[in-house]
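Kindly draft a sequence, keeping tokens residue-aligned:
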Amino acid sequence: MTLTMDWQNLPGGGNIEDRRGGGGIPGGGIAVGGVGGLIIALIAMFFGVDPSAILGGGGSAPTTQTRTQTAPGEQDQAYQFVDRILGSTNTVWSGIFQQAGRTYTDPTLVLFSNVVQSACGQASSAVGPFYCPLDNKVYLDTSFFAQMDRRLGGGGDFAYSYVIAHEVGHHVQNELGISDQVERAQQQARSEAEANGYSVRLELQADCFAGVWGNKVSSLANLTEADVRGAINTATAIGDDTLQRQGQGYVVPDSFTHGTSEQRVRWFMTGFQGGDPNKCDTFGQNVRL
């Protein structure tokens, strides 16, 4: 990792469950959201892989290499990095919830390699980071960070942090009951395009929540303009329009599920510049999407 932001200054204790080196369970499938969902498109785009194979549905799980577990206090740098980022999101959101008279339940982050089983089903690391609302856990294969450097045009510690904070943003939505409301609205949608529109708003709000976290830790982590630019580059690279244009040469707006590059950057910066989660109402009638 490129050490730009001072992530070592952030509080740890982020509830990490280290499953790296563990085997997967054959079969199953998973419905994913957040940044990770777009990696399916990336895999198809760059490697010609059938997305249905990525999401499971039969066959044997990939074989993982055994990883030597380290003793407490001797975790590798990736573990320490994720622990500090997740720990700082817990601190930020616990404080925000407390100010609103609510209680925040910290999520768990599961580190895995190649394949993992969650309460939402089985997923390959090719899916990318994702949040499962059924077990309140974020799932992450840290090799995704190298994929960001190679394929998403964005790297650096704050860009990696943005990905984690985005998935935590989905946990915040789950805590607030927003995810359930969106699911009900999608079930009542009159068309696939309308249902996709709710998904876009949910993802953009998670981007905004990630920006709120970045605002709250900016001084402690000594964030620089270059750090922020790295996160913006990542948000730009994972816009639906950018991915579709690169993958198929044209854009189908009704199929968007995460938002355009411009939307993702704008909502991340809305959260980052103001640090106010109340400004992250992507479902408001006057919101410019």
Notes: The first helix runs from residue 39 to 47. DSSP finds ten helices and six strands in the chain.
